[in-house]
């Protein structure tokens, strides 16, 4: 009996968007209008590439970025939840699927000593260049019309499950914890024994309830959360079953 926990990162594990939080490093803690207005829907990763160039051009170094990023607050109850999962790893496999990047997620999890809670992190690859600039690439290419062009979370989840099956690992239940519009695609892939846990008041919750109103509800059960302690209570129930 093993459960798979799938976490989004921004506004789910941390209570902010890590990509917009990094702007605290910028001169006057803001971006020029021209750069801000250069974002095109579905092309966030390319936009962040330009943000990182701007930070590099302004002499923002890796150390300063790391200091800023490791001050990002965790969502209410999340520290307790991740501690609890870490103590029960024999029951829970745990992955992150996020539109952030490898550098930010690594810094934040390692600083809080949570890196070992997660078996794998699927996010946009990032690295510092020889000139000290942070660079970011798209996670993969895909053909899903619903998702941003750099990341379809359903594809990631499907490929992870296939790989696990090849290793002889299958799951009693998948629990998907997220908040954003790009979490809907993987939630629609979940089966009736699985559970989607959208964060209260965020886009994912609204999209799931809209589907129910349109009489095409998601197949899995849905449990809304506002504090991660509610997620922990649910996992404790699963452990007893």
From TrEMBL:
Keyword NADP in record: no
UniProt keyword list: Hydrolase, Magnesium, Metal-binding
Active site: 8 (nucleophile), 10 (proton donor)
Annotated Mg(2+) binding sites: 8, 10, 179
GO molecular function list: metal ion binding; phosphatase activity
Cofactor(s) needed by this chain: Mg(2+)
Chain positions recorded as substrate binding sites: 19, 99
Presence of the UniProt keyword Cell wall biogenesis/degradation in the record: no
Name of a matching Pfam family: Put_Phosphatase
Superkingdom as given in the UniProt entry: Eukaryota
Assigned protein family: Belongs to the HAD-like hydrolase superfamily. PHOSPHO family.
Entry protein name: PHOP2 phosphatase
